[in-house]
Amino acid sequence: MFTPNPIGYVRSPYTDTKAIPKGLGVRHEVEGILDILTEFEIGLTDVEGFSHLFVIWAFDRSEGYDLFGPSPADNRPHGVFATRSPRRPNPIALTVVELLGRDGPKLRVRGLDMLDGTPILDIKPYMSSIPAEQLRRGWLAEAEARKQADSK
Ligand SMILES: C[S@@+](CC[C@H](N)C(=O)[O-])C[C@H]1O[C@@H](n2cnc3c(N)ncnc32)[C@H](O)[C@@H]1O
Q: Which of 66, 91, 105, 111 fits a 20 to 30 Å CA distance from 80?
């Protein structure tokens, strides 16, 4: 195994997890900066051509984990690997952001759901070859259907 070292830090308007929208159907529209360390800047070459990026980051302010528990998106508990919970055995997170622009080692992005100062572990161009009709959304789709039925 390896010891991850941050390649940079997120500059986000969020300083408190309570301010980050959670729950069913939530959309993340907040803008901020992926502030990449200058020693890694050359690795950003050609990134501008991509509209969206995968950002792999560390839940650095999360402690411990629950293998099975509640989710803000449902009133039923689920296994941690069927959720995006910050309380997981390896506290690694994945967020898709829209790339708005680049100023040297700073990437301006939209779609943040992490706290200010969050360590970035990696960046990869977003791509998906899976047709939408082949995607299944498991318990999330069921929770959405129940919510819709309850609101009628
Ligand atoms: C539900 S997780 C999803 C993260 C990522 N999109 C994923 O799917 O892996 C997002 C939540 O993690 C928490 N969070 C954000 N930044 C964090 C950090 N640096 N350390 C610990 N928890 C954090 C906040 O409560 C936020 O609402």
A: 111
Q: Spell out the per-residue pLDDT of the chain, length 152, in tens.
A: 999 999 999 999 999 999 999 989 899 999 999 999 999 999 999 999 999 999 999 999 999 999 999 999 999 999 999 999 999 999 999 999 999 999 999 999 999 999 999 999 999 999 989 999 999 999 999 999 998 888 87
β partners of residue 97: 53
Nearest CA to ligand 1 atom 9: 93
Residues with CB under 6 A from ligand 1: 17, 20, 22, 59-62, 84, 86, 93-95, 113-115, 118
Residue 41 belongs to some domain of the structure: yes
The beta-strand segments (E) located in the chain are 8-11, 31-36, 52-58, 68-71, 74-79, 92-103, 106-110, 119-125
Atom of ligand 1 nearest to the CA of 18: 25
Domain range for residue 93?
A: 8-150
